[in-house]
Design goal:
387 residues, alpha/beta, Purple Acid Phosphatase, chain A, domain 2, 6-stranded mixed beta sheet
Length: 387
């Protein structure tokens, strides 16, 4: 099967699921509204326009990037978050209805005022979801600095400590724009790091929104005495790996691609291409075993790999610290339960054998510019080495 056919099938399935979920929400919304009311007449228009905005905005971005495409993408992105919570509420209500059908437990107030109760629920849920989305968006605008201490039991040629910043999943583009990124950079500067690690998905697919906002000038402000090192994630590959690489490198970042860099003659940073490289570029990435052989295992080995798969393999190969992102820890509760089931570590610090691992939930967002259940973060790694 060709890659174009695979893309077509994938996006057809996504659109089918998207349409089905929205249709389910729509039918329940229509059932809740009084027959003949103005709101019921207006509801289909408002609802389906909101449903169409994300797809329309992303499509228009590729044809003609403009303020119109920005408005559509922003509106549609908020709708994605609203859709999730409306779907969960509708499923819950339907479960209650089914239980009541077989084991009646509704009080008399509900049975005698059923039409009014449905309207009250519709109104309450709508207001509640709007407030939740607003609070979740405000949460995304205020990343915290999270401090983590790690001791690597190896000599580092006289270096005893390292003050590092690690960030993942910035997703620079239409939604995480230059203004938001400038605030992130100012927080990074306040840490005064010796080195900065970027664990992939620095860009959010297309380069055009980044170019239009000249975000590269702000990227240049990310600097540290020992340098800024990163890897590319699946979103750089979705948007085009080579243009993304060239842009990042031309604005001061050192992107490590299935290779190693020795820093200050003290430790190695190993960078992997993204796990999804074969799907989007048609080429395999190097096996981790090949990359590890490029480094001297007597020195501390720090691996940056965007997706936190195969942590046990990295540990067995002698990696001392792995830094990853990608999961967003679900970004929107309760999706964190899904990512926790998929990954050995969905979020935070863990130890696999002798290897330290940290998986960040990210400093930016993908899809909805909303975080519920976790805060975006800039990770301040206080790394010490054996004296």
């Amino acid at each position: 099967m060709s890659r174009h056919m695979a893309f077509l099938i994938f996006y057809s399935i996504v659109l089918l699921i998207y349409g089905s979920v929205n249709y389910y929400i729509y039918t329940r919304g229509m059932q809740a509204l009084p027959t003949g009311s103005f709101v019921k007449t207006l509801f289909p228009w408002v609802f389906w326009i909101l449903v169409a905005t994300y797809v329309a905005g992303r499509t228009l971005e590729k044809i003609y990037l403009s303020h119109a495409s920005d408005i559509l993408v922003w509106t549609g992105s908020f709708w994605l978050a609203a859709m999730l919570y409306l779907f969960l509420v509708v499923v819950l209500v339907d479960i209650i209805r089914v239980v009541n059908h077989y084991i009646p437990f509704y009080p008399a107030f509900i049975t005698t005022n059923y039409e009014k109760v449905k309207l009250y629920i519709f109104s309450g849920v709508s207001v509640g979801v709007i407030l939740l989305i607003i609070l979740g968006h405000l949460n995304t605008l205020n990343p915290r600095i999270k401090e983590i201490s790690v001791h690597i039991n190896k000599d580092a040629n006289g270096m005893t400590e390292l003050n590092a910043v690690m960030m993942s999943d910035i997703h620079l583009g239409t939604l995480i724009g230059n203004g938001h990124f400038e605030r992130i950079v100012e927080k990074v500067k306040s840490i005064n790091p010796d080195i900065i690690f970027l664990a992939g998905d620095i860009l959010d697919e297309d380069l055009e929104p980044v170019l239009r906002q000249n975000i590269g000038e702000t990227l240049k402000q990310l600097n540290a005495p020992l340098g800024v090192y990163g890897v590319m994630g699946n979103h750089e590959y979705i948007g085009g790996a080579e243009p993304a690489y060239n842009y990042l490198v031309s604005h001061g970042l050192k992107i490590i691609r299935d290779s190693v860099v020795k820093i200050n003659e003290s430790f190695y940073v190993l960078g992997r291409e993204d796990r999804d490289k074969p799907r989007f570029a048609g080429r395999e990435r190097k096996d981790l075993n090949e990359i590890v052989k490029l480094a001297d295992p007597e020195f501390p080995l720090i691996l940056i790999d965007h997706q936190p798969y195969y942590l046990e393999k990295a540990s067995k190969l002698g990696i001392d610290l792995q830094l990853s992102g990608h999961t967003h820890h679900g970004q929107l509760w309760p999706l964190n339960f899904i990512t926790s089931a998929i990954y050995t570590i969905s979020y935070g610090y863990g130890k696999i054998g002798d290897m330290h691992a940290y998986v960040s939930n990210g400093v930016g967002t993908w899809g909805p510019p909303v975080r519920i259940g976790n805060k975006p973060e800039i990770v301040n790694l206080k790394i010490t080495f054996r004296k």
